[in-house]
């Protein structure tokens, strides 16, 4: 089939450069108000614990995780400065 139209290319090429593309709109959670986001997230947390898959950190576990994360971040920063 031949294209008998005087312009070539896609239909988008007929737009002038002065037109700006439409602004991107938020979708999913980003489009919701914060209260609705919290409500849905809370439902997920409750469902997780009811199914037995949820985990609640004890203060000791939380302390150990924080210590481990701090050591990892300090280790990276000292390596970066030593290489410079």
Low-confidence spans: none
Percent in strands = under 5%
> Given the helix and strand composition, which structural class is it?
mainly alpha
Largest β-sheet summary: none
Oligomer: single chain
Helicity range: 40-55%
The DSSP helix count reads 2
- What is the number of E strands? 0
**On the 0-100 scale, what is the average pLDDT?**
77
Radius of gyration: 27 Å
**Which outline best applies?**
flat
> Distance N terminus to C terminus?
62 Å
The arrangement of helices and strands along the chain is HH
Description:
- The model has no long low-confidence stretch (mean pLDDT 77).
- The N and C termini lie far apart (62 Å).
- This protein has two helices and no strands.
- By secondary structure, the protein is mostly helical.
- The radius of gyration is 27 Å and the shape is flat.
- Helices cover 50% and strands 0% of the residues.
Give the SSE map.
Layout: H1 34-50, H2 59-83
Q: Top keywords for this entry?
A:
84 residues, mainly alpha, 50% helix
Q: Quick gist of this model?
A:
The chain has 84 residues and is mainly alpha-helical.
